[in-house]
Write a structure and sequence with these properties.
With 442 residues, the protein is α/β, with parallel strands linked by helices. Helix content is 60%, strand content 9%. Strands 3-2-4-1-5-6-7-8 form an eight-stranded mixed beta sheet, with helices on both faces. Bound molecules: guanosine-5'-diphosphate. Residues 108, 110-116, 193, 248-249, 251-252, 274-277, 281 line the site of guanosine-5'-diphosphate.
């Protein structure tokens, strides 16, 4: 699970909101205090947290949310949207050159995962039909060249190197010539890192950049280093004007600070995330999916949107009142069925529910035909029968079964369910009244 501790805290806090039928401003403020703490503990940049929480608060306390039927869920939706926009709204792709080769320069501190990324990125692009070339420009770290050659060998991608006696600027320049001659359409340049940022490193990277004029400068940072990763990104961006960031080691126990702050602080997008040591473990970065993952939401957002688009809020309110007052009729029931049908097949709706796996779905054995049957039965009733099912005697049941193309058993079952639902609502409203009375007495 990515950012486990952050995810757990956010889900806990928002879970409490979701459970409430009505929200007060105080509820939202309290929840936002908890969200703020969770983000700070995850090492998210202080200014970013402040901005984020203010935005969510401002939007959540608005009219639309507080007065909606599902205020808690609306707040969750807002948190999700703001988390997504913090990380960049949509996927940012590599800038490919109009005239190949596309030159991608990787930079970053030592140990961030540049050499590994050369292999991962090469592998990913190769699978998409590109012909990459890896270039060994790290002449300082012992065995760096050898490591790139091993990585290249694993994914069967050629590696250009000139040993460790040449200037990296010359190596990069020669690699470009070599690539062009050999039909490589993507050239991935692995540069040297240092333990800390220093002038010498930055100057060298600046010189390589000027010489090869890359289409894409990707900064590689280690997600485990949190805020440090963010300041590293700021320094590299100032000097090199990078195009994007790759966050590695997201499979470890990174707290989330880097992922959530980098875009806001540097203005540069996250483009990929490293999810493991293997060369297949690279994923394009999708801000929306990352936000959903952090909030443990499955695809509940689409579900909420679907419901918003298909369920008439005014009607839903009326229905709630009818249920309370027990004047819920078969016509209302029919209305409900119509609205549910608009949302799509039941199995598809259930698939969007977080935690619902395919096995559970199979066990549930959902069958849309049942709904069609129920609809047919109700439609075979007269207006009077729909309003007052108690008049439906034996001969009426027979007529309804025949008219709907079902059988007496099905009609009986539906009538029984309807009666039970009404009885349940009566009990509920009795309980509600009793509780209100007790509340007033206290
Ligand atoms: P460089 O100095 O920037 O070239 O870093 P390396 O590519 O040598 O990576 C440093 C270490 O991090 C190596 O042990 C890699 O296997 C490891 N590493 C790189 N990316 C990831 C990742 O996404 N997840 C994990 N768990 N380890 C990674």
């Amino acid at each position: 699970m990515v950012f486990e501790s952050l995810a757990e805290k956010l889900q806990n806090t928002l879970g409490k909101l979701k459970g409430k039928g009505k929200l007060t401003e105080k509820d939202v403020k309290e929840a936002m205090r908890e969200v703020k703490l969770a983000l700070l503990e995850a090492d998210v940049n202080f200014r970013v947290v402040k901005n984020f929480v203010n935005k969510v608060k401002e939007r959540s306390i608005g009219h639309e949310v507080m007065e909606s039927l599902t205020p808690g869920q609306q707040v969750v939706k807002i948190v999700n949207e703001e988390l997504t926009s913090l990380m960049g709204k949509e996927e940012s792709k590599i800038n490919f050159a109009d005239n190949p080769p596309t030159v991608i320069m990787l930079c970053g501190l030592q140990g961030a995962g540049k050499t590994t990324l050369s292999g991962k990125l090469g592998n990913l692009l190769k699978k998409k039909g590109k012909k990459p070339l890896l270039v060994a420009c790290d002449i300082y770290r012992p065995a760096a060249i050898k490591q790139l050659q091993v990585v290249g060998g694993q994914v069967d991608i050629p590696v250009f190197s000139m040993g460790d006696k040449q200037n990296p600027v010359n190596i990069a320049k020669a690699a470009l010539e070599h690539g062009k001659k050999n039909g490589n359409d993507v050239i991935i340049v692995d540069t040297a890192g240092r333990l800390h940022i220093d002038e010498g490193l930055m100057d060298e990277l600046g010189n390589i950049k000027n010489e090869i004029n890359p289409n894409e400068i990707l900064l590689v940072v280690d997600a485990m280093t949190g805020q440090d990763a963010v300041s590293v990104a700021e320094s590299f961006n100032e000097k090199l004007d990078i195009d994007g960031v790759v966050l590695t080691k997201l499979d470890g126990d990174a707290r989330g600070g880097a992922a959530l702050s980098i875009r806001a602080v540097t203005g540069k997008p996250l483009k990929f995330v490293g999810m493991g040591e293997k060369l297949e473990d690279l994923e394009p970065f999708h801000p929306d999916r990352m936000a959903s993952r952090i909030l443990g939401m499955g695809d509940v957002l689409s579900l909420i949107e679907k419901a918003q688009a298909n369920i008439d809020q005014k009607k839903a309110m009326e229905l709630q009142n009818k249920l309370r007052n027990q004047d819920f009729t078969f016509d209302d029931f029919l209305d409900q069925l119509e609205q549910m049908k608009n949302m799509g097949p039941l199995s598809q709706i259930l698939e969007m529910v977080p935690g619902m796996n395919s096995k559970q779905l199979k066990n549930l054995n959902v069958d849309d035909k049942e709904l069609v049957k129920i609809e047919a039965i109700i439609k075979s009733m007269t207006k009077n029968e729909r309003n007052d099912p108690s008049i439906i005697d034996g001969s009426r049941r027979k007529r309804i079964a025949k008219g709907s193309g079902t059988n007496i058993q099905s009609v009986n079952r539906l009538l029984k369910q309807f009666k039970e639902t009404r009885k349940m609502m009566k009990q509920f409203s009795g309980m509600e009244k009793a509780m209100k009375k007790r509340g007033r007495m206290n």
